[in-house]
Amino acid sequence: VYHVAFSSNIGSVGEGILIICCGLINGGDIGFVWQGKLEHPNMTLRITRYNEDIPSVLGIDNGYELVMQYSDATAEQYILHGYVKESPQLTIEAYASFLLPLSKNDHF
């Protein structure tokens, strides 16, 4: 489980939670859900809006795909750079910081 802080080239910022398991990515923030597949050093994320009151950091009203590249900054942090597949001039940078491993059982 990772905390993600991100900013776009149009001056907007946001943050959310990212969960990576078995090569799949799931996460989101207060307005969007992110889903995708991890293929080192790239990932493609499908961004789906669920809260119409929250604007996209990229200024997009509907769902879209992000093409992202990532690299290790440290053992517990990743740096990500990407763009909107349909509009490559819209870019985003993100920093993912490790929070917790996924639970492996039902005992908390």
Q: Layout of helices and strands, plus pairs?
A:
Elements: E1 2-8, E2 13-21, E3 24-28, E4 32-39, E5 42-49, E6 64-74, E7 77-84, E8 87-98
Antiparallel strand pairs: 1-2, 1-8, 2-3, 3-4, 4-5, 5-6, 6-7, 7-8
Structure description:
It is a single chain. This protein is mostly beta strands and 108 residues long. 0% of the residues lie in helices and 63% in strands. The chain contains no helices and eight strands. The protein has strands at 2-8, 13-21, 24-28, 32-39, 42-49, 64-74, 77-84, 87-98. It has an eight-stranded antiparallel beta barrel. The chain starts with a strand and ends in a 10-residue tail after the last strand. The mean pLDDT is 92.
**How would the global form be characterised?**
globular
Q: What kind of sheet is the major sheet?
A: 8 strands, antiparallel, barrel
Low-pLDDT segments, ≥5 res: none
| Share of helix, binned | under 10%
Count helical runs: 0
Series of H and E elements: EEEEEEEE
Q: Could you tell me the radius of gyration in angstroms?
A: 14 Å
Quote the distance from N terminus to C terminus: 16 Å
The overall strand count is: 8
Structural class, by secondary structure, is mainly beta
- Share of β-strand residues: over 45%
Strand order of the largest sheet: 1-2-3-4-5-6-7-8
Q: Mean pLDDT score, rounded?
A: 92
